[in-house]
Design goal:
Strand order of the largest sheet: 1-2
Helix content: 40-55%
Order of helices and strands: EEHH
Structural class: alpha+beta
Largest sheet: 2 strands, antiparallel
Shape: rod-shaped
Number of strands: 2
Number of helices: 2
Strand content: 5-15%
Radius of gyration: 26 Å
């Protein structure tokens, strides 16, 4: 049997309260972590001698 609580005149099960609490916590955490998106700074022009070298430089820059 589930424990029942009276909230605003209605009977609510403890499992419903637990689910609402976890959902509210997850939504609040997600919202708090979203924050402002980091604007990527435009770096200097890439002076690569080949397309492969340019791709490699862009790959390394994307890691940081």
């Amino acid at each position: 049997m589930v424990a029942q609580y009276t909230i605003f005149g209605r009977q609510v099960g403890s499992h419903i309260l637990a689910a609402l609490t976890l959902g509210t916590f997850a939504a609040g955490t997600t919202y708090a972590m979203s924050g402002k998106k980091k604007v990527k700074e435009q770096g200097p022009a890439i002076n690569a001698s080949s397309k492969d070298e340019e791709d490699f430089i862009q790959f390394v820059n994307s890691l940081f």
